[in-house]
Amino acid sequence: MKFEPVTIKDIGKALGLSTSTVSRALRGSYEISAETKKLVLEYAEKINYRPNPIALSLKERRNHSIGIIVCEIANNFFSQAINGIESIAYNRGYHVIISQSHESYERETVIVDHLASRSVDGLLVSLSSGTKDYTHLKQLYEKGLPIVFFDRITSEINTHKVIADNFKGAFDATEHLIKNGFKRIGHITSAPYLSISIERLEGYKEALKKNNIEYDEKLVQFCDNGGMNYDEVEEALKKIFKLKTKTDALFTAGDRITTTTMQALQKLNKKIPDDVGIIGFTNTMVGEIFSPPLSVVRQPAFEIGQVATELLISMIESKRPVTEFETKALQTELIVRESSVKKS
Amino acid sequence: MKFEPVTIKDIGKALGLSTSTVSRALRGSYEISAETKKLVLEYAEKINYRPNPIALSLKERRNHSIGIIVCEIANNFFSQAINGIESIAYNRGYHVIISQSHESYERETVIVDHLASRSVDGLLVSLSSGTKDYTHLKQLYEKGLPIVFFDRITSEINTHKVIADNFKGAFDATEHLIKNGFKRIGHITSAPYLSISIERLEGYKEALKKNNIEYDEKLVQFCDNGGMNYDEVEEALKKIFKLKTKTDALFTAGDRITTTTMQALQKLNKKIPDDVGIIGFTNTMVGEIFSPPLSVVRQPAFEIGQVATELLISMIESKRPVTEFETKALQTELIVRESSVKKS
DNA sequence: TTGAAAGCGCTAACAA
DNA sequence: TTGTTAGCGCTTTCAA
């Protein structure tokens, strides 16, 4: 199918004006007579003229679009973060292009390449769990493409980063379990390389330490697919429940990990919180109608998206190279419901 | 920040060749000597040359990108549909630009305008609940921009459409409730103008009729925000529960409506399924861990996205105007759990 | 106040 | 086999 839009040239021809006059009239240049301006504007309106953004981009070497790379949009944290991103981008006149890495390093490199080959002005990225090498991003970044990391970040690239305060969120959740009488707390988390996994694990360890509970690495299980794969979570649970000393609670670190763990616990016939208490990082909007109502660590996903986008746009629009970078950590929220509170 | 990418001209200069030679070598034209070709390719590889897609688009008047307009991505149906869309688009070399109308007609028109002003090759749209007028889309469509509707469609524009078999899904769900001994079934649905609302309402009515239950329009409540707004759902429920004859079951028609209804029922202290049975359209992945496990009508969201995308790309790539259109209705799946089955 | 022309990066028709 | 040139839609000097 063909789509033949009106160009500035068409307007010029119809009105007997040069393209430059039309162009100037359209952008309200002061050097054009009010009369001509009116003529052009009215005609443009009439035929519903829209400037070709592609031609503009070619000129300005700007696209007014930013690329987002996340592992999965079917994840409450990310869909909410994207909403935050969109809310800012939209107001600032930027389009948003969303791509999913599906936790694959290969896919991430392809996407980055695809997006970055100058079709976006900047990148908002949350790393895939398979990514251990950052050269695909580093190269681009060093060439001058603005990048802001959010949620899953890396210390190897020096730029703005926006995260939840994962350490504190994990610490609070773990300590909450301890204070509620749970003694042996398992930790199900995402891939071990991920910044979020590391930060949350540290928070977990710190809470144990503070409360004089010995850290046992057998209680920590990593799920490389971040809970997207049911079996991997069930496996992890089985390993924990096979241990001699009985695990009486679980701290899960990730949106899909938390909900999938709930499913697995149900399938394994574990009563919550009697057999096992649970609290986890998740941004589900329906935790209260789970069985039992689920205690959660909620991340400020929307705000994380907003802040990251503001930082990115400031980089994009900065005249001079940005050299001062910050890592913002936004506070999480602990929402206690029945799953983490012993009944007796 | 500035991002100075390598152009074909740079390569030409470095190698002492004309831009056209470089261009041809790059795309492997047969008329270029193997030697030159090799030279160019190797150099391009070395300096990591990437063609500027914007310049390409300007030439080809094609973007290789398709726009998606949905009301909300934080909705299981849509995030899954987008996954389907992406899976096809990605393989066919198309980018995907996602925008959210947030159920607002104004926002939808702005987005459509924005996207369609030639920055996308085609549009995949699911209408907002506020949309009763379709001229913004119709105009574009008549100018030749390929559009495929999915999920929320309109009969006013004659193009490809892909939906779930909403009538049958609603019919089956309602009849399932009836067969399980529920007598007076309320129906909570989205905005009344939406095609999905109409189709599902028809299925509901038909099931009542077949089972000799009189249709009572007071039992049907429309939620214009599609369940995004908690209060609107709670209001709807209160209205139904205030009726003299007791409502003993609910058929909810929409992803967010269903989950929000569950939340409201809990808050209103209604026991499910004893006080009120419930089954609803939703693509939640965690229905089984709800309290009680939720019976659902599941839509083939991923497949709907895939099929719609295939149809759209076929329109985009078709040499001659497409005149034969089809409306595909994919089957839903009824998943019965405890919420719709009386215990006694 | 307006127009002519160059240029953004690339492709392709035409020449050589 | 390679180079020259025009053109995609637009903005922006430079001239008039």
Describe this structure in words.
The structure is a homodimer of 344-residue chains. Chain A is of the alpha/beta class and 344 residues long. Chain A has 12 helices and 12 strands. Chain A folds into 3 domains: 8-51, 434 Repressor (Amino-terminal Domain); 63-164 and 301-330, Rossmann fold, CATH 3.40.50; 166-299 and 333-340, 3-Layer(aba) Sandwich (Rossmann fold). In chain A, 52% of the residues are buried. The mean pLDDT of chain A is 93. In chain A, helix 1 packs across helix 2. Chain A has a 6-stranded parallel sheet, with helices on both faces. At the A-B interface, helix 4, helix 5, strand 2, helix 6 and helix 11 of A face helix 4, helix 5, strand 2, helix 6 and helix 11 of B. Chain A binds a DNA duplex (16 and 16 nucleotides) through helix 2 and helix 4.
CATH homologous superfamily name of the largest domain in chain A?
Response regulator
Low-confidence stretches of chain A: none
Strand content of chain A: 15-25%
Largest sheet of chain A: 6 strands, parallel
- The count of helical stretches of chain A stands at 12
Cα shape of chain A:
elongated
- What is the terminal-to-terminal distance of chain A? 69 Å
Assembly annotation: homodimer
- CATH fold category name of the largest domain in chain A: Rossmann fold
Order of helices and strands of chain A: HHHHEHEHEHEEHEHEHEHEEHEE
- Average residue pLDDT of chain A: 93
The count of domains of chain A is 3
Q: What's the CATH architecture name of the largest domain in chain A?
A: 3-Layer(aba) Sandwich
Q: At the first level of CATH, what is the class of the largest domain in chain A?
A: Alpha Beta
Round the Cα radius of gyration of chain A to an integer and report it. 26 Å
